[in-house]
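so ive been stuck on this for like two days lol. basically i have the seq below and the ligand is zinc ion, smiles is in there too. i just want the complex predicted, nothing fancy, no docking runs or whatever. if the output looks off dont worry ill sanity check it later, just need somthing to start from for the group meeting slides
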Amino acid sequence: MNSSILKLLKKLISKASISPNDMGCQKIISKELYKLGFAIENFKIEDTNNMFAKIGNKHGKTLNFLGHTDVVPPGNLLNWKYNPFVPTIHDNNLFGRGAADMKGSISSFIISVKNFLNKFVHKMKGRITILLTSDEEGSAKNGIKKVVKYLIKKKEKIDYCIVGEPTSEIFLGDTIKNGRRGSLHLKLYFLGKGGHIAYPNSSENLIHKACFFIHDLTKFDWGDNYVDKDEKTSVQVSKIFSEDVPENVISENLFLRINFRFSHKVSVKQIKFCVRNLLNYHNIKFFMKWKLSGKPFITKRGKLLDIVNKTIFLLNKKKPKVSISGGTSDGRFISTMKSEIVELGLLNNTIHKPNEFVNINDLNKLSAIYQKIIEGLLL
Ligand SMILES: [Zn+2]
């Protein structure tokens, strides 16, 4: 067992770095990287800590590890068996907020880099960089998005990027990602005609209209049926609100909050157009507010994906599934640098939940996988 991964991970979990607070996590990681000879730039942007560390020769290929030191809030502490910010080992599992998403992956890749450099620093052909933010789980506005803009300006390049998000589903390495769906938010206000509940013909019941509208919207064919089930465009209504009126009154307005997770086969323009058409079809008067929180991206399949596939196959005797399912990730910002991106990390079955944990063997396995990938790309 590699005790340095656990040691580092325990230190990171002990910091209650609820997004966008870093709480000193990046300092802990910097200390490890300084010892290895990394040059480190820190970017404090408003409430967010970001860092970019690099080592090696810029003229070779650059392999970047991307991660976030922030975590989601623990929620109701009564649902936790152990304090979420006191790392606790039970049955070979380490419990704590961020154990899987994604302080565990960060610890694994830092130690894999350390082991690689200890062995091969003089043979390394290219460069290793590490990019971290403390705002991935929150608004993400002062995180990787802004740092990438700076890096592009500085003519930095990233050829390959490994994102340490927890992509595994049943066993380590069963699923990896080379893209993500986009995310589009809609606030929708229906405007109608209120009235006495006993005279529905002289008013317009927006709640009834909303039911039919939602039915059609959630059944809508976005034309991407040929992609995998969890990669298709999906629509979720997350809030319906109507003002509190007396019992015998039909309300004259209604509010809906809707999110679209859309594949790269569907455009924002197309979604907006179809939603408007559907509203008109249901004869609904409305006004709406859209917010695009992430464009979909999918990166080319090249050397990185090849090596990741081979490395995982050697370990699991099974190739990983390459998927674009799940939420957005900071990989979307790196994709603007034209890098080849693969997301590969721990199991995601306890992330954002009470009693988040990581299996200790998985940490070691993941670190070994990362190290093999570095060797495959930079030797
Ligand atoms: Zn994450």
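Residues 3-180+296-378 form a domain with the Aminopeptidase fold (CATH 3.40.630.10). The first helix runs from residue 3 to 13.
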